[in-house]
Amino acid sequence: MAKRNIKLKWTLLITYLIIGLCPLIILSNLTFESVEKYFIEERKKELLLQANVISGHISISDYMHDESKSILFDYDINQTSKQSGYRIMVLDNTGVVINDSNKTEEGKIYYLPEIVDALNNKDVSSLQANDTIHAAVSIMDDRSNCIGVVLVCDSVADIAENVSEIEKSVLSIILVLVVVVVLMTIFLSWFFTNPINGIIEVIKKMSEGHFDQRITVNDFLHTELAELSESCNNMAEKLEQVETNRQEFVSNVSHELKTPLSSIKVLSDSVLLQDPDTVPKEMYVEFLEDINSEVDRMTAIINDLLTLVRLNRQEVPLNPQPVVISDMVEDIVKRLTPIADAEGIELNYTKAKSVTAEVNETKLSLAISNLIENGIKYNSENGKVSVTVDADHQNAFITVSDTGIGIAEEELNKIFDRFYRVDKNRDRQTGGTGLGLAITRSAVLMHNGSIKVSSTENEGTTFVVRIPLKQK
Ligand code: ADP
Prior knowledge:
This protein is an alpha+beta fold. 56% of the residues lie in helices and 17% in strands.
């Protein structure tokens, strides 16, 4: 098995951080880039506009042809450059600089692709490698001939500065957001993993045998976690129940076996205490008979226990076969009639219809035999036991009804418990182990059926067993 060393808490933490921070960082970078682009585009438009205005002014003022206006021309260019902060150059149609607001390039041939474009009547503005924008616009005479070019240049360093200022303030906001996201992430991963850790703790304790542990289910839990906690608690309750049952069972078995063993001990001690020369042989025989009956009783208990354990073993399949239930019950009644006769009890069988069901014959026979035997055992003098088999389209119904001593209302829900007897003394006479009805119920439940009892004290008891005709 692969080693599990990554905690869910860390997975959640990293996932939340990635989900929370990545879009934030990508988005802010994209925003800065587009803001810078926007400002540069705006600046390009502004320079073009400025260049157009200057070009128009030069045309109207006829600065290019009228030498007498050269001072005014110079003054105009300088003033405009001062006001706008841009460098302005005017070139003639051969590319010679005839006016430069910086005065450094006058008389020189200036060759730039933008100037070539402008001489071809195409106004352009573009960003240069040295972070300067060049906007070039042609100057036309009144016959629409290109007589020169106005070149307006400006640095974009201020834009980069402004953007980096914005970047700084946005970054500080992002930093605050990062702290908030990290804190929220820590809280969220704690919020989700803390209840799971609680559940794990409790389950660990349960696996160590502390079945009294319970998970606290509060309203803040998510539905799934609350359901998981509740399921764990139910499981713990079941385990606790199983453990209690197991302990009860072991103590019941010990108690049940202890009684005949103590009797045997008392009987054998008293035999040993006698003087063998004076005691008559009949007395020994009597003691041995008593010991023998206690051994029989222990054997009966152990046999019933083994039957019960075998029935409750989940891994043994039911293996149902189609059985004519009405015939099966009739055979049981026939087998038990001599016992009933010996007790002076009338045993009747009524078949409402012939019924066939998918059952395990041995197990169901055992269950029905127990009920009829009880009807005979717990009957009154000259009493009756009636057995009926009937069915509807889904279930077979086997009814065992007696006119016996009956069972008190408050005892009715206990009689199916292992070792439970209403009257312990009577049972010692009848030889009951208190396991018969537990065996019957297990066998019926194995068939996915049910067993119901109704009784009136001193009038009689009726058991109704329902068995589905078909097993799934
Ligand atoms: P047992 O081996 O003692 O008969 P069961 O499990 O068969 O054990 O029955 C449990 C107890 O239920 C009996 O001890 C008896 O007190 C009561 N009981 C069972 N069947 C009847 C019945 N038909 N009439 C009255 N009491 C009954």
